[in-house]
Amino acid sequence: MIELPETYVLAEQINCTLVGKTIKAATANAHPHTFAWYTGDPAAYGAMLTDKTVVSANPGIGSNGGSTEILCGDMLLVIGTPIKYHTKGERLPKSHQLLLEFDDGSFMSCTVQMWGGMFCLPAVKPSGDIVKPSPLEDAFNKAYWDRLLQSAKPELSMKALLATEQRIPGLGNGVLHDILFKARLHPKRKLETLSDDDKGRLFNSVKSTLKEMRDGGGRDTEKDLFNKWGGYQTVLSANSWKRSSFCQICSGNLVKEAYLGGAIYYCPSCQTLG
Ligand SMILES: [Zn+2]
């Protein structure tokens, strides 16, 4: 699934590649998918987007950390699926839920993996009030972190705290494992057992791990706008599990198990339960 680091990577690539192109045709829902979501009737997307020019992509603002926003003229696309660019003449995906054709013959496509929204809304000027800052912005600082922890129930586990309820938009079950591994905290560790030192280490890991993922061009489990895998090598993921099930720090056995809707990966020796 698209999570925060990948939305930054996609936005940067869109800003370098798609800005200035004008949409010649837009087709939504060409291959209906049960878990593809639209605003209103997808058949209206063509009329809403045709002749609009791509202005910018700008993720990570407010609560849109897991989505990529693309401003097309006076319309805003908010996309929670992978986004692919296709040069003129390049083969298009067999199945897609949103396809934009540009005036130079190139295309942009969205294909839903498990689920995903492709919303198209009239763009409104941002109010400037960012309720939930992205961990990659300065506003996500120690004071904000302390408030976030204080507002959470003390019995929440680390996974529940970080990757549910959209407390930190765009931080999901994909990026979670490396964040907790680097903070040396067990995914089931309860918030109330954390010392100030633990909380500080977790804060630093949330910021630095997500930054490393973004700077690496996204995780090696996700593909970018040009259909290339990201360059950040995940420490704990479905990919790393296939490579090795031993901890890279203590060489002990890693654990994979189901927890709170999704697999968790951890080292039971390095990531303590408290
Ligand atoms: Zn270990």
Total DSSP E strands: 11
CATH class of the largest domain: Mainly Alpha
CATH T-level fold name of the largest domain: Helicase, Ruva Protein, domain 3
Describe the strand arrangement of the main beta sheet, using strand numbers. Answer: 2-9-5-4-3
Helix content: 10-25%
Secondary structure category: alpha+beta
What do these coordinates show?
With 274 residues, the protein is an alpha+beta fold. It folds into two domains: 4-122, MutM-like, N-terminal (N-terminal domain of MutM-like DNA repair proteins, Alpha-Beta Barrel); 142-266, Helicase, Ruva Protein, domain 3 (Orthogonal Bundle), CATH 1.10.8.50. 25% of the residues lie in helices and 18% in strands. The strands form three sheets. A five-stranded mixed β-sheet has the order 2-9-5-4-3. Helix 1 packs parallel to helix 6 (196-215) and helix 5 (176-183) crosses helix 6 (196-215). It starts with a helix and ends in an 8-residue tail after the last strand. The mean pLDDT is 94. Bound molecules: zinc ion. Residues 247, 249-250, 252, 267, 269-270 line the site of zinc ion. Zinc ion is lined by residues 247, 249-250, 252, 267, 269-270.
